[in-house]
Amino acid sequence: MPQEELFGSAGQVINGLPGCIHFSQHCGELGAVVDDLIAIAIIAVFYPGELHLQFLALTALPLLAFTWLVQKRIHSWYLLLPLALAAWALVHASGIHATVAGVLLGFAVPVVRSAKRGGPDAGPGLAEHFEHLVRPLSAGVAVPLFAFFSAGVALGGLSGLKSAFTDTVAIGIVVALVAGKFIGVLGSTWLVTKTTKATLDDGLAWIDVAGLALLAGVGFTVSLLISELSFGDGSPHFNHAKVAILAGSVIAALLASVVLRIRNKHYRRLALLESADDDGDGVPDVFQVDGDGS
Question: What are the transmembrane regions (predicted)?
Answer without folding.
Answer: 53-70, 137-158, 170-192, 204-226, 238-260
